[in-house]
Amino acid sequence: MPLPPGEPAPQADALRDEVAQLHEAVRSQRDIGVAIGLVSARFGCSTDQAWRTMLRVSQDSNTKVRTVARVLVATHDGTADAEDREVLQSIVHHLPASGWPEGRPPRG
Fold first, then answer.
1. Please, what's the largest Cα pairwise distance for the chain?
2. Contact at 8 Å (CB) between 35 and 73?
3. How many CA atoms does the CB half-sphere of 88 hold within 13 Å?
4. I want to staple 91 with a disulfide (CB 3.0 to 4.6 A). Which of 52, 61, 83, 103 is the partner?
């Protein structure tokens, strides 16, 4: 049975959803890679130790690794919003003793 004009095929909707999920996965992987570098530089450890630190912070704070990474990157970049700052407050005590800098002030 043909679809009414202008109505997308169900396959097109599924394809759009899959592409959106892939874009989100790429963004998350980028944030995780950048966060590993930031943690490594901040705490003077190897990238393997930085990854293990992020995993521990994720587990101890019950926060997804991708969220930990996004918040650390946004804080570093000065793009953290109120929600990011709230998440940072919930994870910062799980980081090594020197903590995490608040980052640059928000752009205005």
1. 65
2. yes
3. 20
4. 61
- Over its length of 108 residues, how does the chain's per-residue pLDDT go in tens digits? 565 666 666 788 888 988 998 888 889 999 999 999 999 999 999 999 999 999 999 999 999 999 999 999 999 999 999 999 999 999 999 988 877 777 554 444
Integer-rounded Cα Rg, in Å, for the chain is 18
- Nearest-angstrom CA–CA distance, 36 and 51: 6
Q: Give the type of residue at 73.
A: V
Note whether 61 and 35 are within 8 A (CB). no
Lookup: tokens for 8: 């997308």
pTM above 0.85, yes or no: no
